[in-house]
Structure prediction request, 223 residues.
Amino acid sequence: MNQSLTPADNVRRKEDKTGYVTPMGIMPSVTTIIGLTAPEESKRRLEQWLKRPGSAKESALACKRGSWMHEQIENHLQGKPIKKHLAFGGYLNSILPWVKENVIDPVGIECPIWHPLGFSGTFDCLAHLVDDHVDDLTLLDWKSSKYRRSEDLIFGYKLQCAAYRMGLSHTYLVTPNKAKIVIGRPAATMPDIWEIDEAELIDLEAIFVERLKQYQDQLIPVQ
Prediction:
């Protein structure tokens, strides 16, 4: 292993999961900021979906599935036994072969980040991949979905990666030069993969900063 990250001990997630405690106080998560500043059309679609019968149960199941899948990928990367799950196994069967074939050197797994601009969070994985050059680092974001994700959701995932990259640069002084969103699908032999190169990450960082300002402005009462 060329290098490894020791998870920062000066940032931790609050027990109620509403934010993170950092050296500059409590900060919102990257996902909270992106969710609350989503375009109105995206918010309307989400509201309509939440009104559907069974949507609450489906959302809770998706969260449970995502947590389980993340745990099994982490177990594999750390050399621990992988558990089986009758309902969720298909998602893992889609994504795990890709992980085994491509991730050769995990540098950081589930590490917290924060940034003095006012955000924090936890990234999934930072690693050297088989197709990387010797000095390359790739930020990996694991997802699971029954259906192919829409463009606006993928854009939100890309913003997450850009924000985590900023947080990595500040918290660990390490800046990955690309990112991959890897989405496990239950009936697919391969995951859906979205790659973000360095130029796009830089552009996305600027967009995330604007979204962060928008979020912060929403918190300031109008005089």
Remarks:
- Residues 21-218 form a domain with the Lambda Exonuclease; Chain A fold (CATH 3.90.320).
